[in-house]
Amino acid sequence: MDLLEIARFFSEELVLVPRTALDAAAAPRYYRLETSGSPRVETVTSAPPLRAQYRDLFDYEYARLPAPLRDLRRSVPAREDVFLFASLLSPTEWALVIARREEALARTGRDLSSVRKFVLRCVRGPGGGFDMQVVEIVFSDGTRVRPGETGQGARQ
């Protein structure tokens, strides 16, 4: 999947927030990738838009990132100086994530309080858009369920 296509489709903001942006005494500054036209890195001189819902871009192998995202990552050379390198999820995308998680969990017959984590994947949807798919639910007892497989899901 092209992370830039996904970001455009869901109106995500792609950001790199240096640790210095969290210092109240320092002038606020972070970097974002402008994706509406030709992708380019912009320096933003305001407080960073920190949200709890994001896709951590450090989870992706650097060499496999699209060139504009590699440019964004290089805005702060040392990784230890980076607070956040992420796609900030839009409210619409977050609502879709919640809906897909609830649907998948309902198929297992288990309760949300027993979930350790959901593993989701962005997939091409009908009409060229994107959708979310829960590929695995990890429960606090160590059980792993793949809701997309037959029955209640394959258990490991």
Verbal overview:
The protein has helices at 3-10, 67-73, 91-108; strands spanning 13-18, 30-34, 40-44, 54-56, 82-88, 115-124, 130-139, 144-146, 154-155. Residues 150-156 have low confidence and may be disordered. With 156 residues, it is an alpha+beta fold. It is globular, with a radius of gyration of 18 Å. Strands 3-2-1-5-4 form a five-stranded antiparallel β-sheet. Helices cover 21% and strands 33% of the residues. It has two domains: 3-88, no CATH class; 91-155.
Low-confidence stretches: 150-156
The portion of residues forming beta strands comes to: 25-35%
* Count of the separate structural domains: 2
Count of separate DSSP helical elements: 3
- Sheet/helix structural class: alpha+beta
Global shape: globular
Q: Measured on Cα atoms, how large is the radius of gyration? A: 18 Å
Strand order of the largest sheet: 3-2-1-5-4
Distance between the termini: 27 Å
* Count of beta strands: 9
Percentage of helical residues?
A: 10-25%
Largest sheet: 5 strands, antiparallel
Mean pLDDT: 90
Order of helices and strands: HEEEEHEHEEEE
